[in-house]
User: Fold these one by one.
Assistant:
Number 1:
Amino acid sequence: MWRFLPSEKRVITSMVESPRRTDAETADIYGMNVSTVASVRRRMLDAGAVYFVNVPSFHKLGCEMVAFHKGLLDPAVSNEVKTSNYIGFCATSPEIFDAIIGAQSMVFMSVLESSAALDELMLRHSRFFSGTKKASKATISTTVFPYGASKGTYAPNFGPVVHRFFGLDTRKPRPRLPAMVEATALDLRENEQRVLMALVEHPSAPDRELASIVGLSRQAVTRIRHKLQDENYYTFICVPRLYRWGFEIFSSVHVRFASDFAWSSRYNKQPTEPIDYSFFTLQKADEAIANHMIATFKEYTLGMETGLAWYHREKAFEKEPDVTLMSLEHCVEIKTFEFASALRNLLDKGGRRRLPHRRNV
């Protein structure tokens, strides 16, 4: 369990809020020395308290949807067996970018180019959990959120969560709110695909190292990276390892809304906290998923009471929310915002030239 110094809290909050912020900018915001900020940042990265991720904009790469999958597990099967089998399944399923498993339930999220890809994933799940693995198979329910008909925090939102946990007497970071994006066909040349792949696999690598990976000049990589960045083909984020910080609870709330409760009214009037503090939110007209990492059980109970009160008053729900609750002490994070396999799988399809596999930098 981590114990952070005041200087570490400020620097981590700054990194999570704005990962491209310079040490000088952080020092100016929090009244610190630039050398102190630089030292803390390096120490937190080296210790694994935080890490960087480049999140591909899958809606611009030929994908049509993000899916949320919830699984109920047989408590009679040992946790070790269930966990081992689902680690194996997720390793064979590049579409899955985030997955966590507990004693009686699990959730995972996938990015998919079509409904046929969803069918393929579910068929693979059934085939994998046949024979001796059948007892450890979860009963899966899936909710699909198509781009263009849904709003999502497709690049995860951790700033407000970290700020609240640290209890800093500073402005709360601006949350990354769910947004609507349109799905489009992949429109990148081969070299641009190669650089994007390298950026996702090596988010902290400088252009010179990326150039050696993809076999291009540094100047070419710099030019392509600028294009990919300017045209929003990826988002650079800093992810805090909250499960190592002493957070107690993972909570995923799945709600179905009443058909006569207008989406525009809900979206414009609903309280901000349930969305501000959800690290990954998916919403559409009739359903929504909000995922939370919560420091204490007391915080969870208070948050549920205040966060859902408005919806109940407005009679917004078709039925009671379906809440998946896991003790992080007894959970295993199988994947945590790992996008490289999903991107490689997507770029490898359609007869495109296969990309070079990852090399260590």
Note: The chain is about 40% helix and 20% strand.
Number 2:
Amino acid sequence: MRSPTPDSSHPYSALTPDCVLDSLDSTGLRADGRLLALNSYENRVYQMGVEDAAPVVAKFYRPGRWTDAAILEEHAFTAELAEGDIPVVAPLVLNAATLHRHAGFRFAVYPQQGGRPPEFDRPDTLRRMGRFLGRIHAVGARAAFAHRPALDIETFGHASRDVLRSGRWLPDDLAAAWDSVVEHALAGVAHCYDRAGPVRALRLHGDCHAGNVLWTDAGPHFVDFDDSRMGPAVQDLWMLLSGERAEQAAQIGEILEGYEAFMAFDRRELHLVEALRTLRLIHYAAWLARRWDEPPLAA
């Protein structure tokens, strides 16, 4: 089978294995040639061997997605959490910097952290997760992001809807029906926000699902704060829930038992769970549209 022709318009078309290895060398660490691409669709992430040292993980930021200031806010937040003995995987400081550049790419280097998927069907696991999330949010509430976006109806809902409307992503015979459904969904989201009333926005992990939590015998390690933003605390809680409504009610009870040992939780935010779930679905559909023309990762 003929190999696909590289697409020079793709933002990562120039990120060859040699470029990845040379990028790590530019920080003063010496790559030993071992290179393993890890699962990441938004950025490009590689586990890399280092001469006479433990392996590291290098994350190459998608060109044009974040400003330098926004990336550095992410790094500063994780460093602040790590200074509080919260188990987050923060970028290494190399040559007095956490954000590096090579061949037109921006990247950060992290210590390799092993772990297994968390068992969210266990009440004790949920309580421990709640305690750590309470500690993260207690730190997150100390200040606000200045350069990172908020999670709200406008950015996740209306902007995502407009992307899908403008690109002719749906067949003509389905467009009107889809438009009606998404408007109905966004009206439901707005109703949930109205029921909750004003809620506090704080610095969040932003994408706290099982894939971004590595569990060890010592407990969880939180990774990938790439989607960190301002938003309601419940955004970092609802993705831990599964099953029917009664099961989810029991799970959130366990989480909050641990959470409120370190951070007060406004119960009105529970009205936002279905709203945030709906916004995530709309946002994800727009994300797929934006990435539609990208080649497969294995290409």
Note: The mean pLDDT is 93.
Number 3:
Amino acid sequence: MAGLIRRRARRQRLFRWVVLTLLGVFFLLPLLAMLEFTTRGGGGSFTLQTWRLLADWPQLRETYPNLSTGIVASLGQVLLTVALTLVLLVPTVIWVRLRLPRLRRVVEFLCLLPLTIPAIVLVVGLAPVYAWVTYLLGGSSLTLTFAYTILVLPYAYRSIDAGLSAIDVRTLAEAARSLGAGWTTVIWRVVLPNIRTAVLSAAFLTVALVLGEFTIASLLNRTNLQVAVNLLGKSSATMSVAVSLAALVLAFVLLLLLSLVGGGRRRTSPKETS
């Protein structure tokens, strides 16, 4: 019996390694092909000229001004979208969970609604709104923050809601309130530290969505990274592929950091509670 269990465990480990290897090859081969393309010089030689130019910001800004403008615009959009999403969503979800549980389904429906609306349809509805936004705030690409906040609501809500479901938030809040803490203190110093991983997950998902969004920015005639890469591909395919690869690697690093933070949090939790 023990031998059968060991053989079954070995087969399961072998199966896991085979699946992981196949998935690794499936995902890494396109990335390696992109890397090889960006390091291909004349006559098939190896060169890092494209990556040196990408790392040299003053030279990149002079050589590809539209790309540098798109990078700066996307970074600003990332920061503003993350800030606006968390400021709006985190207190709202916590407050509904603690004080207004009957509205939870309504809030969930409203947050998940953007998933049911295609981006092209969403742009049609946003176009008249952005006409007024342009009139009031100007035509800055940073105004895309409002549209991106709507797009990221389903993913950020699910992440934060899952974090709240993993803890007994009502007991924590009642204990803090019995000790004289106000609701602001309960949210900021009691609940928020316990859903740190969920909040980071929402932030990283927001970063990944904003860096990869193209449809809304293009149809609203705004500039971001993907619009700049699309335009750059018509004149310099090597640089456009290099920028796309760098964005993919950045998203992977963010997800890796999230997994490390979540793993560290789970490892320290038993020590904290013992």
Note: The chain has a mean pLDDT of 84.
Number 4:
Amino acid sequence: MAGSMAQMKLGMFYWPCGHHMAAWRHPDAVADSGSNPPHLIELAKLAEQGLFDMFFMADSVSFWRGHLDAMTRDSYGTWIEPFTLMCALSQHTKHLGLVCTSTSTYDQPYLLARRFASLDLMSGGRAGWNLVTSANKLEAASFGRDEHMEKVERYRRGREFAHVVRGLWNSWADGAFVQDKESGLYLDKSKISILEHKGAHFRVRGPLNVPPSPQGEPVMVQAGASDDGRELAAETAEVIFGAQQTLEGAQAFYADVKGRMARYGRDPDSLKIMPGLLVCVARTHAEAAAKYEQLQDLIDPQAGMQLLSRRIDFDLTGYPIDGPLPELPPNKTVSSRAQLFAEIGRRENLSIRDLYRRVAGARGHMEVIGSVAEVVDMMETWVREKACDGFNIMPPVFPASLIEFNQMVVPELQRRGLYRTAYEGTTLRANLGITRPRWPTADADAALRERLSQSDVIEFRGAG
């Protein structure tokens, strides 16, 4: 049935306790998942047993500053800082990619480049950086700011940030580290590329003081769905983690982003689009639906209302829970995900309760609830019909849902020839099937150098 279709790529998306907001209350859940290192290491090992391309972790740099009573009923408030966790997981896995989120709005390019280059080296070439610009306006207060940066400006800063980071990652050409004991020559200065960047947001001088890993540089991951986010992804991303609700919407997104890549001289196959997918699977559809409804029934109404308030960036306190979503005011910092939730509520005439139940499981991502055949049919259709290149799998409850996916879905994907039976390599790039992207060094790609120079993003010079 699969024919010549390329095998799909899969990420395992970690979320404390599981992706359903009531997961921590489920009898099979590990309630202290966000602060339990042995449990997290076991999840990474399970993901590697399932031959996943990557262990993916999102992040926010603020505590959820909503209503305290609701916050006490939600497990998503504290967790181990993702980069620290990735370093630990690198020592307990051999093939699994390690991708985590770090914001370009509240960080500095040199520090981020150094951290991720070090993780890439420690893991043998399995690191990836998920670039976000911080849609959560509450993060501003964590850094002493009265207001969150507007979305357009966040993306301008993010674009410049990404190019500076890549410039630093490309400080060393192949063969730069001679390490000749007899001659005493450690470095070949002709193979050092020194970044000299003066832009609208940053002034940075290289080179980076971390040597490259076996994959050359970490994989760039991006999640924006707005027009600004799509443009940034077309220019910089190698993996896109997005949220799509329908096959038609996913196809349009896929065609749009891949179609933009030509203007940056990029091959569409060098970008893997992997939308989030919550999977609740069982032997029969009825059994899967009953499992999911058990989770839905565990949602605390107050916590559900506050989750939706946070997701749409509008306080719903005082509105009738069984009434419609109110008209939302214009918002210059709101994310495309928030707009998606509002559109779903209006389009389907959902009450606030109905809408938070929709958001509770996958936060706007696609959900598939059914038998093994139903789940795999959906996944195959989306990849075959060019809606995506794979998925970032969102297990509802950890570890039970990940174990079920490995035992039930993975074998069927393999039986249909849709998924690997062994890792292709030891680096994230090798397993994703992507090569290291070009970088405009002194002897390569004059057109790209010229484009970056004209956009006042980056400048380079050789060492000698």
Note: The two ends are 57 Å apart (CA to CA).
